Amino acid sequence: MTLSTKCPLCGRQKSRRACPALGRQICALCCGTKRLVEIQCPADCPYLAGAREHPPAAILRQQQQDLSLVAHMMRDLNRRQSELLFLVLTFLIRYEAPELQPVVDDDASNAAAALAATFETASRGLIYEHRPTSRPAERLMMELKPVLAKAGEGGGSSFERDAAVVLRRLAEGIDEVHARHPADRRAFLGLLERVLSQAPADVDSRPAEAPSRLILP
To answer: For strand 17-19 and strand 24-26, is the pairing parallel, antiparallel, or unpaired?
Structure first.
């Protein structure tokens, strides 16, 4: 009879699961908590597949809460505004900040509010660029501007009003999530990562198509 050994990861629990990524036996607790975080699980791992098919109740509640917050942020938006919001959210999740200037929720909210004010001013026929108050927020805004400019080609003041609505809604959504989790400086950005990671595999094709649809009346 073979005695169970201690898990090599935590050194406490008994090793009962064969981990294909590590090539060793580990405990169920480490398998569940370190999966895809510290352990690079292969796609054919039976424990990973089982977890995806039957996620714990806590994960289901988190997913439902995340999707509810995103749905609330999209309330009353028309089709063009919804597509524009999706475009901006996709940009945020893919944005790569400089190593020493990581972006947090406050930066994203600040950048969105400043850019919204700029579009609001432009829709009234005035040219004035509102500036964020932090360097990371300013860098984020400067990289988002050409994305929106391409999406709004030919849209005129109508697009500027839609962009302002979407960016204001985004700033409000970020502030709302941050207020619920004040200790987490990336509460909204973390939520965004979780939501988009649940999207279908073909979702990557949508942002590339969005600019051509956004200018439709």
So the answer is: antiparallel
Task: Kindly state the tokens that stand for 162.
Answer: 């839609």
Q: What are phi and psi of 32, to 5 degrees?
A: -75, -35
Alpha helices in the chain (DSSP H): 28-34, 46-53, 57-73, 79-94, 105-123, 135-151, 156-180, 187-197, 205-214
* Residue 58 buriedness (CB in 10 A; 0-12 / 13-18 / 19+): exposed
Encode pLDDT of 75-88 as tens digits.
999 999 999 999 99
Give me Rg for the CA atoms of the chain: 22
Dump the DSSP string for 117-164: HHHHHHHTT-------SSHHHHHHHHHHHHHHHHHTTTTHHHHHHHHH
pLDDT in tens, 21-50: 999 999 988 888 888 878 989 989 998 887
- Strand, helix or coil at 171? helix
